Amino acid sequence: MNAVFTNGAKQEMSVDWNSDDIGKVDTMIPGVYKVRGKIASSAGDYQNPFITERADPYIVDGENGYYYFTASYPAYGNVNKGYDRIVLRCSYNVAGLASAEEKTIWSAHSSGIMAKHIWAPEMHKINGVWYIFFAAGSSSDIWAIRPYVLKCEGDNPYLDKWTECGQMQASSGDTSSFTSFSLDMTYFENNGKHYVIWAEIKGDSSLFMAEIDPSEPWKLISKPILLTKPEYDWELVNHRVNEGASVLKTNDKVYVYFSASGTGSEYCVGRMEADINSDLMDIKNWTKLDKPVLSSSDLNGESGPGHNCFVVDENGDTLIVYHSRPSSHDTKSCGTYANDPLYDPCRHTRIRKVSFTNSGEPVINTMSDGEIAPAFREVTATVIVE
Q1: Which domain holds residue 217?
Q2: Which residues of 42-61 are buried (b: 16+ CB within 10 A; e: fewer)?
Q3: Is the pLDDT of residue 6 over 60?
Q4: Do 12 and 131 lie in a common domain?
Q5: Is residue 45 in some structural domain?
Q6: Is residue 49 part of a domain?
Q7: pLDDT digits (tens, 9 = 90+) for 98-134
């Protein structure tokens, strides 16, 4: 059945129909029959938390029969107790990633650049080659965080060797990109052009976008545009931040989702959009919503959702993959609570289905079928035999 929510979103759900009622339907005798049913968990449901203590999650369809998962490996209390590696899991399906063996495919340098704060890895296939974008600080200055790139030397990112391509490079004449705290780089392609989006502190932490050379994706080939900066109240809580961009494309639109405010329970997700055939490097073609599209108020037992990605699972469902904290974090009773949320591993990977309105607009704050109130789980179908 197709459930329609009050926010206009729709979602396919399976129903367990009453066998006694079905047995009473006689297709040889005209009449009106009522068949009772109950909304059941669908094959696309996922356990939540999906993976504990993994923030900034990223899942990608490898298009080779496998899905891959990576995330920030946590630190426990301070920078010297984690954030020191890039991990990868693989599975035939999305659900299997939760229990898949986690392998370290790259470790932080013992000193110098790429030695501290290994954050937010994302794996992308560009021109048929696997790359990982990630951020890292230096042993001499742990806050000298910049985006870096790894390249897989084979077709199997889980088993093959990864080599370093170095720091992201600005285009000719661009003297400002990557000169200050910059991180959370993501990539997407649209209409034959290749783009990266990243967060950089220029006054505030804002999002910038530029084109890249797909044969050397660690090099910008255009000057960036300022995509969004924190301006609304929900983007200014504890810290003035826009970061963690992710892209979702539909037939008509390019959507950029991003995280805002501090990394505690105030963390939330905002959205921008542009027509898919527009000039994406012209900021006039982008529209930013003035309210968040996912926040703590949308969740039960969770707080501070953010730093998400999107993936289509083997069932054809579009999923949002994000991290959040258990709501116990708000009262400092989370089992691994640390005073500084940056070094608190109590951030867990979670998965929700994305719903779509009749006009094709994605909705990411619709509760899953497992969260539908019991009063609304009972349904009745009318069968008419003529």
Answers
A1: 55-367
A2: bebbbebbbbebbbbbbbbe
A3: no
A4: no
A5: no
A6: no
A7: 999 999 999 999 999 999 999 999 999 999 999 999 9
SS3 121: strand
Please tell me whether residues 98 and 232 are part of one structural domain. yes
Q: Which residue has the tokens 């545009």?
A: 225
pTM of the model: 0.86
Asked if 17 and 129 sit in the same domain, the reply is no
For 50-90, the DSSP string reads SBTT-EEEEEEE-SSS-EEEEEEPPBSSSTTSB--EEEEEE
Two structure tokens written together for 353 = 């289905």
3-state secondary structure of 233: helix
Say which amino acid occupies 122: E
Is there a domain that residue 43 lies in?
no
Query: What type of residue is 18?
Result: N
The sheet that has 162-167: what strands, in order across it?
Answer: 116-126, 129-137, 146-152, 162-167
Report whether 310 contacts 320 (CB < 8 A): yes
Same domain, 8 and 118: no
Residues known to be catalytic: 56, 243
Domain membership flag for residue 282: yes
Region for residue 365 given its phi and psi (left: phi exceeds 0; alpha: psi -120 to 50; beta: otherwise): alpha
- Give the model confidence (pLDDT) of 173-209 as tens digits: 999 999 999 999 999 999 999 999 999 999 999 999 9
Specify the CATH number for the domain of residue 256. Answer: 2.115.10.20
